[in-house]
Amino acid sequence: MTEGKLANYLKETKLEMGGRPDAPGSGNWRYAQDEDGIGWLVLDCENALVNTISDAVLRQLDGHLQQIEAALPRALVIRSGKAAGFAAGADIDGLAGMEPGETEALLTEAHGVLDRLEGLSCPTIAVVHGAALGAGFELALACDYRIAIDGASFGLPEVRLGLHPGLGGTVRLPELIDPTAAMEMMLTGSSAHTKKAKKLGIADLVVEERHVVAAIASLLEGKNRNQSRGLMAKAFSLSSARSLAADRMRRKAEEKAPKAHYPAPYALIDNWVKHGNDPAAMKEAEIASFAHLLQTDTSKNLIRAFFLRRTLKNAAGDADNINHVHVVGAGIMGAEIATWIAMQGKRVTVADPEEKALGAMIRQVTRICKDAHKDALETRDTLDRLMPDPMGYGVQRADLVIEAGPEKPEAKAGIFAELARRMKTGSILATNTSSLRLAQFLEDVPAKTRFAGLHFFNPVSKVPLVEVVSHDKTSNDTRTRLLAFCTAIDRLPVAVADTPGFLVNRALMPYLLEALLMMDEGVAKERIDQAALRFGMPMGPVTLADQVGLDICLDVAESLKKSLDAPVADIPSLLRDKVQAGDLGRKSGRGFYDWSEGTPKPHAAAGDDPDLSDRLLLPMLNACAECVRTGVVGSVDEADAAMIFATGFAPFRGGPLHYARARGHDEIHQRLQQLTEAHGPRFRPDAYWRDAERNV
Predict the structure, then answer these.
(1) 340 with 366: CB under 8 angstroms?
(2) Confidence (pLDDT) at 31
(3) pLDDT tens for each residue of 497-506
(4) Is 526 a catalytic residue?
(5) How far is CA 131 from CA 136, 140, 144, 159, 248, in A?
(6) Among 99, 420, 479, 608, which residue's beta carbon has the most beta carbons within 10 A?
(7) 3-295 classified as CATH 3.40.50.620
(8) Does residue 650 carry a pLDDT above 90?
(9) Is 458 among the residues known to form the active site?
(10) Taking 50 as the threshold, does the pLDDT of residue 10 lie above it?
(11) pLDDT in tens, 374-383
C-alpha cells in the first residue's frame, strides 16, 4: 500500500491516528511517530476484515517492539486500523489440532512478546474501538492504559471454547480490577461494554473518536491516573481469602456449567486459588492448563461449534440487494423480526390492522436495543429506520416482504392473495411459518419462484439461526439472496427443504412431546427437566415448551401429526387442556410452570437418569438423522449447527449427530429398538443408523 493510499484508507475509516507512516509498512502492523514523539503502532491484519491475534501477528509485534526499545518514543499507542474493531481474539484455526507440547511452546513465546510490551520503559496506551476480545483484550491488558471509544467492549470469552485466557489474561485482569469481577468475566465469558468497562477500571477514559489525541495527551500529563489500581488485588493476596471466594465461584459455576461438562471454569478457579499471589507461577499454570484443556472433548466440540457458526456465515454470499423490508404482522414475532432488521441498518415498514400492536412494537424497540447494548444514538437510528405502516403502503416499495401473521393456513393464504395484488415486480415474498408447508400456498403468491420461507426463532435478538426454506419452484437466485440477507442482518442461515416442521421443529417436537407424555405418565416435570439439564441442554423440555408457547407447540404438533409419514407421538391431553385454559407459558405468565417471578429454575441434581435422557434425546437424534438422509438439510454439519444455534443443543457435545457418532451409531440403533419395544413405533430407528457409509 502506497503512502497516499494509506492516508486515504485511514481517512476512510475515520479513525483518529496521530502518526502517518513515512513508508508503507509490511505485514500486519504499521508503525510511525508523530510530531510530538508519540509512536503509533497500528494492527491491520492482511487480507482480513477483522484483526485476529495469530502467531504471525505476535512475531511481527515482537520485531516492532525490538526496534521501539532501541529508539523509545515519548509514548506508544496501539490501536486497530480496522473499522470493525480492535481485535476479535486468537486465531482458532491455528490452535485447533495442536498437540499439548506445541501449544505450550507457542503460548510461552506469545507470553514473552506481551511481557516485552508490558516492560517497555515508555508509557503504553491501547486505544480500543469496537470489540477487544480474548487475545485482543489480553494485548490491551499488557499496556499501561486503555482508552475506550464510546461503544467499545472488552471480554475474555475463551470459556465458550472450553478454555480460559492463555496470553496472561488470568494474571493481568485480576491485577487491574476487583479480582472477583475479573474472575466473573473470565468464568462467564461476558463482555464489559463502555460504561461498565470504565466503572470496573478496565478503561481509563471513554471518549468520542475525535477526542483520541486529546485523551492521550491527558493521560500522559497524569490527569486521569487511576490511583486505586491494584488495591483489590491486595485484598486477595491471602490464599484463604481466595479460597472463600472460590467456593462461591464453584457453586455458581455448577449451576450453569457442571464440571463434568465444562472443566475450564474449575481449572481457572483452582489456578487462581493456588497461584493468585504469584504472577510468574500463575502464568506457568495458565499455559499448562490451557494446553491440557485444548485436548479435552469439551473444547474440541465447542471449537467445532465455532467452526460450524463460521461455515454458516461464510456459505452465504454478500449481495442480497435488499434495502427495504416490509413486515406483515406486528405480533411478538413480527415485532422482533422488524426490530432486529432495522437494528442491522435496513429500512423496515410494518403493517398491522391493530394500531395497539404497532404501538407495542415501538415500545419494544428500546428494550431490545438496550439488551443489545445499543447507545442512545443507535437506538434513535433504529427507530428512524422502523416505520409503523397500518395501511401497508410500504409493500409497494419493498425488496422483501416477510409475512409474520397467525399460524393458520387460511389466514396466511388471505394475506398472500392481498400481497400478490400490491407487491412490486421482482420483490421476494417470505413467510415466517414454523411448520406449514409452503407448497400449499403456491396458488396464492405473486410469483412462485420468488416465494420462500424465512423461519426466525423467538426471541429473534437472542436466537441466531434462521431456516431458509425452499419449495420445488423457489429459484436459486431467491434462495441465494435470502441466505445473503440473513448474514447481512447478522443471523446464521441454514437452507432446508419444504417439509413438515422443516428441520428444527421436526427434530424438536418429538423431544418436547416425549416430555409431555412422561408427565402424562406421572413423571414430575422437574425430574424430566433435570434429566435434560444433566445431559447439557440449556433448559429442560417442559420449561422450553412454556418458553416457546404451548399454543405454538400444539399447532406444530398437530401439523406434524397430520403431515408426516413417520410415526409421531400422540398429543397429550394435558397440552390441549393448558391451551384451552389460556395457560400458554411464559407469554401468559403461567403454563406448566408459574412464570410470574421470572424463569423457573428446576436445577439439575447430582446423578444421571439415562432412561429419561434417552427417551427425551434419542427421538430428536432420530429425526435429525431422517432429515439428513432425506435431504431436508444438506449435511450432518448443517443439521448439527442448526440444532446448536436454534435450540442450544448441548454445544460441548458438538451437535446431535456428532454426539451420535461419538456414542456409536450401532448403540444408538440398538437403544432406539429397545425404546420401540417398550414405548411404541415413534422410536423406530431411521435407516440412517444402518447406512454403512455414514458409519465410517
Answers:
(1) no
(2) 94
(3) 999 899 999 9
(4) no
(5) 8, 11, 19, 17, 29
(6) 479
(7) no
(8) yes
(9) no
(10) no
(11) 878 888 999 9
Catalytic residue chosen out of the listed positions 286, 467, 514, 626: 467
Pairing verdict, β 465-470 and 492-497:
parallel
Between CA 42 and CA 78 the distance in angstroms is: 6
Q: Is 587 exposed, middle or buried (0-12, 13-18, 19+ CB in 10 A)?
A: middle
Radius of gyration of the chain (CA): 27
CATH 2.60.40.10 assigned to domain 504-631+664-695? The reply is no
Distance CA 363, CA 148 (A): 30
The half-sphere exposure of 540 on its side-chain side, counting CA atoms within 13 A, is 27
| Cα(550)–Cα(406) distance, integer angstroms | 15
Q: Where are the domains of the chain?
A: 3-295, 318-497, 504-631+664-695
Percent above pLDDT 70 for the chain: 93
CATH level 3 topology of 318-497? Rossmann fold (3.40.50)
Query: Residues 455, 471, 665, 669: which is the catalytic one?
Result: 455
For residue range 148-180, what is the model confidence (pLDDT) as tens digits?
A: 998 899 999 999 999 999 999 999 999 999 999
Burial 319-357 (b: 16+ CB within 10 A, else e): ebebebbbbbbbbbbbbbbbbbbbbeebbbbbbbeeeeb
Query: Which of 80, 271, 432, 434 is the catalytic position?
Result: 434
pLDDT tens digit sequence for 441-468: 999 999 999 999 999 998 899 999 999 9
Tell me how far apart the alpha carbons of residues 152 and 137 are, in angstroms, rounded to a whole number.
11
Nine-digit cell at 420?
Answer: 400478490
Q: How far is CA 202 from the centre of its chain?
A: 24
C-alpha grid cell, residue 141? 491488558
Three-class SS of residue 133?
Answer: strand
Residue 604 is classified by DSSP as P
CB atoms within 10 A of CB 570: 14
Q: Which of 51, 301, 505, 622 is catalytic?
A: 505
Region 640-648 average pLDDT? 97
Cα 375 from Cα 88, distance rounded (Å): 21
Q: In this structure, are residues 411 and 336 in contact, taking their beta carbons and an 8 Å threshold?
A: no
